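Section 5.1 Outputs to date
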Amino acid sequence: MIDLKLTDDGGLDLETPIDDTEQIKQGIRILLETQLGEFIEDKEMGLDVENILGEPYNELVIRSAVQEALKQDKQINRFDSFQVSIERDHRSVFVNLKLYINKYEYEDMEVELGAK
């Protein structure tokens, strides 16, 4: 399937189609950048950021919330690991994911949580 690419600021790039793998990665990014309950069409979609973005940052809480959010996407076969990095100066949390999207397809990606 061919889908439209989202730009970094959330707009549409009408000139750059993306393949299935990039569409899935884009969906994961949207899932993790959407606060739970924020999307009107599906209040159960998104990341529960209530305990993530406050002080003090707790890596175990962040990991648990990201794992729960990733379970919402049935296209992810499994995720082996992810790393959490916290930039306290910019109040940002970055998650580096290592995912199996298709049976044999291994993908790396980084998502910034709570940045928008």
